Amino acid sequence: MSRMGKARVRVPERAARGEIVEIRTMVDHPHESGFRHDDMGRPIPRHIVESFTCSYNGREIFRARLHPAVSTNPYFMFYAVATETGELVFTWTDDQGGVATQTAKIEVT
Amino acid sequence: MRSLDITKKGIHDIHGILDIHFASRRRALSALAVGACLLVVRPATATPDELIVALRETFGERPIRPGKVKLDLPRLAESGNVVPVTVSVDSPMTERDYVKSIHLFAEKNNLPRIFEVQLGPYNGKAVVSSRVRLAITQQVLAVAVLGDDTLWSAAAEIEVTVSSCG
Question: CA A3 to CA A6: how far, in whole Å?
Answer without folding.
Answer: 10
